TrEMBL record:
<protein>
    <submittedName>
        <fullName>Uncharacterized protein</fullName>
    </submittedName>
</protein>
<feature type="domain" description="DDE Tnp4">
    <location>
        <begin position="79"/>
        <end position="124"/>
    </location>
</feature>
<dbReference type="Pfam" id="PF13613">
    <property type="entry name" value="HTH_Tnp_4"/>
</dbReference>
<dbReference type="InterPro" id="IPR027805">
    <property type="entry name" value="Transposase_HTH_dom"/>
</dbReference>
<keyword id="KW-1133">Transmembrane helix</keyword>
<dbReference type="InterPro" id="IPR027806">
    <property type="entry name" value="HARBI1_dom"/>
</dbReference>
<feature type="transmembrane region" description="Helical">
    <location>
        <begin position="21"/>
        <end position="46"/>
    </location>
</feature>
<feature type="domain" description="Transposase Helix-turn-helix">
    <location>
        <begin position="6"/>
        <end position="49"/>
    </location>
</feature>
<keyword id="KW-0812">Transmembrane</keyword>
<keyword id="KW-0472">Membrane</keyword>
<keyword id="KW-0479">Metal-binding</keyword>
<dbReference type="Pfam" id="PF13359">
    <property type="entry name" value="DDE_Tnp_4"/>
</dbReference>
Amino acid sequence: MSMLLIDQMLLTIMKLRQNINLANLFLISPQDVSVMFTNWIIFMFFQLSSTPIWPHRDIIIEHMPSKCKCDFPKTMIILDGTKMKVQRPSALNSQSQLYFDYKSATTLKGVIDVDPRLSITSRSRIAGYHETNA
């Protein structure tokens, strides 16, 4: 298993993002993919675990637009939850996952978080009603 480090990192990122079988793509065995992926995850944990996810409150306030600072001085994050009506899927299992009794509609839901400068800080994946309320 002699791959360049950049290729190993690419493999790890692809595995995290898509969770697909990468052995054929990188011309290595599935066991090598597993070992490489595990080693990179451990390495990234130790390298990144001390990195702060959120900036300090003072930094957010310092970079906050003046209008926002005046009107909402303690606001650090804005959450927006969205429900979208979609066409009813033909598969019965999908119908039951997406049907929202309260709205009597087939619905997808998602959440997005933004900071006061309207930079996206995180987002959820779009999911059906029953997935998000399980």
